[in-house]
Amino acid sequence: MSLEQFISEAISPWMKEKGPDADIVLSSRIRLARNLEQYVFPIATNEEQSKSVITEVKKSIETLPSDSIDSLEMILMNSLQPVEKRVLVEKHLISPHLARESKNGAVLLSENESISIMVNEEDHLRIQCLFPGFQLREALSSANQIDDWLEEKIDYAFEENRGYLTSCPTNVGTGMRASVMMHLPALVFTQRLNRIIPAINQLGLVVRGIYGEGSEALGNLFQISNQITLGKSETDIVEDLHSVVVQLIEQERAARKMLLEHSKIQLEDRVYRSLGTLENSRIIQSKESAQCLSDVRLGIDLELIKGISSNILNELMILTQPGFLQQFAKQALQPEERDILRATLIRERIKLEQ
């Protein structure tokens, strides 16, 4: 698969599949941080060592069993234009850190984009597995399988008492971040989420925006992930997160039911106003479009709006990001030009669906 194919489609092939509880949980992700024992960590390395890491990782990847894993395509960061890196970030295929900071980094991507292995990011390896809907356990199984294969070929930096050694102390131990992306509009509308977040934090979990640490929760999308990596097994971390997500799903469903029973007219007015905005705007900023897309998705999930697939909203959430807009236009765009193109693409995409 070529770079052009990875950056031309807004929605990854794995996202087109319908996972469990997909009306609330958009995706599940497991990310493992690993370092090669014989090399200096990326934060203190030089260009020659970074290139050697890429060579060794590529050689090891080529030995993975082809009948158990899709072939992986390597893309070097120094071969990409800034807008191409931004598109990969917007699709969650690479981290903002790899796009910004790593001159000698790379990423290995599977054909359906569910597997992403970042090389020379904050750590030598960041193994990421993405699944649609609520499938944390399945994502962990897939990540562990890749990790076990690689560990047969590569000597990881590991200590018996501390576990896997990482550049950032907060990742030491399992080196694992488990996360789910959730759409929680009803908990936001009813202001219940503000009361829930402190309780989640006390359980060693954290609630972030759509692109992780430091990002804003656009369109009522929230990333729930573990903070603790040391002192617990991978399975225990996933099970703790799993139980919290189950409760969040139940509370979001209860809040949606309450809105339907007690505020249906107001809810219908909100979702149809947002649909009207998307169908008719000639200029729209990313924050407003994200909120309107969230409202319309809620309307679809509650069957207030018919004839539009929730899949197009997943697509539009990515397609209308700044990097994708400029990739689509094949040129750099000023903010107002992006806002005009964003409105045009949304109108045309919704019209195609109806």
CATH class of the largest domain: Alpha Beta
Mean pLDDT: 90
What would you say the CATH architecture of the largest domain is? 2-Layer Sandwich
User: What series of H and E elements makes up the topology?
Assistant: HEHEHHEEEHEEEHHEEHHHHHH
The tally of structural domains comes to: 2
| General form | globular
Q: Biggest β-sheet, characterized?
A: 8 strands, antiparallel
Strands of the biggest beta sheet: in what spatial order? 2-3-4-5-1-8-10-9
What CATH calls the topology of the largest domain is Creatine Kinase, Chain A, domain 2
Strand content: 15-25%
The helix/strand class is alpha+beta
Task: Please characterize this protein's 3D structure.
The protein has helices spanning 3-8, 47-61, 82-90, 96-101, 136-153, 185-189, 193-202, 234-262, 264-280, 286-301, 310-319, 322-329, 335-353, and strands spanning 25-34, 72-76, 106-110, 115-119, 125-132, 158-159, 163-164, 176-183, 205-208, 221-226. It has two domains: 1-17 and 29-173, Creatine Kinase, Chain A, domain 2, CATH 3.30.590.10; 259-352, no CATH class. The mean pLDDT is 90. An eight-stranded antiparallel sheet has the order 2-3-4-5-1-8-10-9, covered by helices on one side. It has a two-stranded antiparallel sheet with strand order 6-7. It is α+β, with helices and mostly antiparallel strands. α3 (82-90) crosses α12 and α10 runs antiparallel to α11 (310-319). The chain is built from 13 helices and ten strands. It starts with a helix and ends with a helix. It is globular and about 65 Å long.
